[in-house]
Amino acid sequence: MANQDDNSGDVGLQNLDDGSGKSPDLAPKEDGQVRSAQELEPVFDVPVRVQAVLGKSTLEVSQLLKLAPGAVVELDRKVGEAIDIYVNNRLVARGEVVLVEDHLGVTMTEIIKLDGGIA
Fold first, then answer.
1. Do the beta carbons of residue 35 and residue 29 sit within 8 Å?
2. Could you tell me whether strands 34-36 and 50-53 are parallel, antiparallel, or unpaired per DSSP bridges?
3. pLDDT tens sequence across 52-98
4. Buried/exposed code over 10-33 (b: 16+ C-beta within 10 A; e: otherwise)
5. Is residue 85 packed enough to be buried (19+ CB in 10 Å), middle (13-18) or exposed (0-12)?
6. If you ran DSSP here, which 8-state letter would residue 30 be given?
7. pLDDT-wise least confident of 37-41, 42-46, 53-57, 97-101
8. What's the distance, CA 102 to chain centroid?
9. CA neighbours within 13 Å on the CB side: how many for 93?
10. What is the mean pLDDT of residues 101-113?
């Protein structure tokens, strides 16, 4: 999880400035020209919900009520299998869990195209 003491939306994203004084190219415009990070700045503060789904399981309510700290819940994924990354409830990528210093993180290994295919 991100540290939410000072910036509630800060999740440790890399700085887009490469030191050259120019913003990097990000996305093509309708006329074929390229958008810069500066042109997209108005949407930088728009909150989005990001979920990294390790797996899923189905439990009956009686099983759920019996869970205690330290209980193990079997998921539908195997160790090392890619996890799903959702943004605003839409599958956008698959990735792997990584350890960064003493925090868990997720690295994207493949991006899912909007039409449902893999990029």
1. yes
2. unpaired
3. 999 999 999 999 999 999 999 999 998 889 999 999 999 999 999 99
4. eeeeeeeeeeeeebeeeeeeeeee
5. buried
6. T
7. 37-41
8. 19
9. 14
10. 92
pTM, to two decimals: 0.58
46 close to 57: Cβ distance less than 8 angstroms: no
Q: In terms of residues, how long is the chain?
A: 119
- SS3 string, 37-83, reads CCCCHHHCCCCCCEEEECCCCCCCHHHHHCCCCCCCCCCCCCCCCCE
Q: Which residue has the tokens 């909150």?
A: 47
Q: Which are the contacts of 82, defined by CB distance < 8 A and separation ≥ 6?
A: 94, 95, 96, 109, 110
Specify whether the CB–CB gap between 55 and 75 falls below 8 A: yes
Q: Which CATH number fits domain 46-119: 3.40.50.280, 3.30.365.10, 3.40.190.10, 2.30.330.10?
A: 2.30.330.10
Q: Which two tokens stand for residue 60?
A: 């009956």
Beta bridge partner(s), residue 9: none
